[in-house]
Every structure is written in structure tokens, then in C-alpha cells.
Specification:
Blueprint lengths: L1 H14 L4 H9 L9 H25 L2 H4 L4 H10 L16 H19 L1 H12 L1
Helix pairs in contact: 2-3, 3-5, 6-7
Pfam families: CBFD_NFYB_HMF
GO molecular function: DNA binding; nucleotidyltransferase activity; protein heterodimerization activity
GO biological process, one term: DNA-templated DNA replication
């Protein structure tokens, strides 16, 4: 039986391109996981691989990367934002913005926080934003 198991794991490794040892480490990082069955490890690795392929293919087909014949980060972040299936990835694949734009957003959030505390100043600041 051990020979069959050894042969099977050799075959499994060729069927999955992701490193099983790395996936085992990630799975073990979950406090609910005490031990990992070899079949569960293989199936998780294969499912992950297929998911990444699907995400990449979808993003390439629906993105602007095909014009450049390349898959770009922007294609991936656009997919995460626009496609309902992948929206759970939006925090992991955020749209890239310039640092200056981000700092302005932070400033505006800070001002909006102050606006809630003091309405009089808030109205003046909102008028400035519109102008």
C-alpha cells in the first residue's frame, strides 16, 4: 500500500504546478486545521490552480491587456471590481491610484470627519470643493 501511495503522490505532483508544501503551510496557518489529508491537500492545490487560471483567462479576455498581448495588474483589478464572481478579491486587487490622489482622499476623509463635528465650517469647505 505504501508503494501505491508513493506512486500516487508522484503522479499528483505532476498534475499540480503549485508547490504542495507551500499550500500545506498556508492551510496549517488556520487555527481550525490540525492535520491535512493528502487528498485534501492535492484537491485544494488543484482547485487553487484552476481558479487562478480562470481569473487570469477571464481578466485577459475582458481586459485591455489583449491589445498589448499581455495580462496586466489593471486587468486583474478591473475584473475584481466589475465581475460579480470575483468581487470578493476587490480588497486584495485594488485599483492602482497615484500617491498624490491617495493623499488628497485621506485629506478629504479627515475634513469630512471634522465636518460632522462642526457643521458651520463644513458648509464653507463643501463650497470650496464645488468651485
Amino acid at each position: 500500500a505504501e508503494m501505491a501511495a508513493a506512486r500516487l503522490s508522484g503522479t499528483e505532483n505532476r498534475l499540480v504546478s503549485l508547490p504542495l508544501s507551500r499550500i500545506r503551510v498556508i492551510m496549517k496557518s488556520s487555527p481550525e486545521v490540525s492535520s491535512i489529508n493528502q487528498d485534501a491537500l492535492f484537491l485544494t492545490a488543484k482547485a487553487t490552480e484552476l481558479f487562478v487560471q480562470y481569473l487570469a483567462t477571464y481578466s485577459y479576455k475582458h481586459g485591455r491587456g489583449k491589445e498589448k498581448n499581455a495580462l496586466t495588474y489593471t486587468d486583474l483589478s478591473h475584473t475584481a471590481e466589475e465581475c460579480e464572481t470575483f468581487q470578493f478579491l476587490a480588497d486584495i486587487l485594488p485599483k492602482k491610484i497615484l500617491a498624490s490622489k491617495y493623499l488628497k482622499m485621506l485629506e478629504k476623509e479627515k475634513r469630512d470627519g471634522e465636518v460632522r463635528e462642526d457643521h458651520d465650517e463644513g458648509e464653507e469647505e463643501e463650497d470650496e470643493d464645488e468651485a
